[in-house]
Write a structure and sequence with these properties.
The complex is a heterodimer of chains A (320) and B (241).
Chain A: H1 2-21, H2 25-50, H3 59-74, H4 82-102, H5 107-127, H6 129-132, E1 138-139, H7 148-169, H8 172-182, H9 184-189, H10 194-220, E2 222-223, H11 225-228, H12 231-245, H13 252-268, H14 283-297, H15 301-304, H16 306-319
Antiparallel strand pairs in A: 1-2
Chain B: E1 4-13, E2 16-26, E3 31-35, H1 42-49, E4 57-62, E5 65-66, H2 72-78, E6 80-82, H3 95-103, H4 110-123, H5 139-152, E7 157-161, H6 169-184, E8 188-192, H7 196-202, E9 205-210, E10 213-218, H8 220-225, H9 227-240
Parallel strand pairs in B: 3-8, 3-9, 6-7, 7-8
Antiparallel strand pairs in B: 1-2, 1-4, 4-5, 9-10
Helix pairs in contact in B: 3-4, 3-5, 4-5
The chains are: A mainly alpha (320), B alpha/beta (241).
The complex binds adenosine-5'-triphosphate and magnesium ion.
Chain lengths: 320, 241
Amino acid sequence: MKAKKITLIILGIVSLIFPLVIRSDYYQHLVIIALMWVVIGSSWNLLAGYTGQVSFGHAIFFGTGAYTAGIFVTKLGMSAWWGMMFGGIVAMVFALFVGWICFRLRGPYFALATLAGGEIIRLIVTNWESLTEGMMGILIIQSFRSKLPYYYIALTLAFLCVFVIYLVMKSKWGYYFVSIREDQDAAESMGINTTLYKNVSLLISAFFTGMAGAFYMNYMAFIDPQVVYSLHYISIMAILVGIVGGVATTLGPAVGAFIMVGVQETFRSAFFGLAPKWISQAHALVFGLLVIFVIMFLANGVLGDWGKIKRYVFRIKASN
Amino acid sequence: MALLEVKKLTKAFGGLMAVNNVTFKIERGEIFGLIGPNGSGKTTTFNCINNFSPITSGDIFFKEKSIKGLKTHKICHLGIGRTFQVVKPLSRMTVIGNVTASAFCRVNTIKEARDEAYRVLDFCNLLKEKDKLAKSLPIEGRKRLEIARALATKPELLLLDEIAAGLNLSELDEAIDLIKRIRDKGITILIIEHIMKVIMTISDRIHAINFGQTIAEGTPQEVANNPEVIEAYLGAEYAQG
Ligand SMILES: Nc1ncnc2c1ncn2[C@@H]1O[C@H](COP(=O)(O)OP(=O)(O)OP(=O)(O)O)[C@@H](O)[C@H]1O
Ligand SMILES: [Mg+2]
């Protein structure tokens, strides 16, 4: 318990001073992106890991948050930072609709419905050019030249998201979410309005994912539907972040976010230029292999199986 | 007035009449037994009462108000708790977690829910298992967990579906004792049971069905002596040896 507390305090200090010590734009950028994935992964984990409703469509909320922020600039002439709050809210409105349709289904059917939902919304946004500029995407002017403000905004968002979810899971809602995951019929017979609470979980999840999307718009200053509504880069990546780190754990998705952003960048850059260029094309394959590895050997994710990893490492040390 | 009234209840699965025109009334404070051979429609009757599956026709009154068509969780809030014959533990939650989740039916804070869970676990003799995962309990413990979870919702009427099945003799005595203690708390009980020792000793009245239809109702003595019951139910059992 004490070791845990000390680790958390050190983690807090390191995350606060990191960009002051590491001045490289490149590394700061990677950590900002990883922090954004902490938000998305934790949100996905609330719905899938804790509530048992595995979503293959989190790009719906991410993309909607991003476009809300973008449209605030292009159509309303307001700051994209306003879009940050509203990005979360508009994502919740979409979530109401997604929940209304998809929660009629259970298990894999729910997952497929969210997947289809994501693709449908991507097509709508692509074709509704008068509002979204279609394939052209939306380009805005960044508010800051330095990465520091973005870093601290991303850090605040990540902290808030993890902390709020932690508090929720300690409350009545948390008990309800896990009950629904374990047995929906038993939960209903225990007096739990399963439809309502699945939607509550989805709404919280969508809110933070939408905020992350709006942050992405502000930070990257450019979005198009192929990126922010991407099945592969957003929806699947959210799942990977969750399961690699450890589903149904508080900090699992945070660990998963850093691992996955690291893996993704290693391959995108073809091992930082050390390996032949074609490697960067293979990153989808590597994602696949990673998933298989995690499911086979670390079914509970890096954090969930931390004890197992430690034992294994000690055994190697002992035999040396 | 009756606490629960089941009126001309009918439930069809396609062409199969699982429950066919069944009527009974349960008075406050009694233990009311529901018996019948395998597949006679007992569990289906429970599923209809808490709208786990929608009824085909008929009506159900709880405290004189129809509860037909109400959502399952609403019916629980009105004061009807139930256990499942095929137990449904929340496997990856602790025993106390299961019961705490259930206790939120009546309270809102963690502390109140925990306190209630402690009381109920103590009442059900499950307190020493409280930190175990529900999936690690043996079948007898799981059956008691079903009861504890239902009790934590503070029901006025408790539906117990074969909670004694699969228990050994000493466990049976404990189960009978538990049921009696629940009744002494003022909770009305509707119980399905195959084991004659249990149902005959604890029930105030018994309702017997076969192929979804009522064949007898009365005191345990009356029902046990009813020729139709002997033929349909006891007869079959004796014949099997
Ligand atoms: N969901 C369902 N779909 C179709 N048929 C069903 C369904 N549930 C139950 N039945 C059928 O309804 C009949 C009554 O089943 P039920 O489970 O109520 O019996 P039971 O009296 O509880 O039996 P047991 O003593 O074995 O528990 C059986 O023939 C069963 O096969
Ligand atoms: Mg049954």
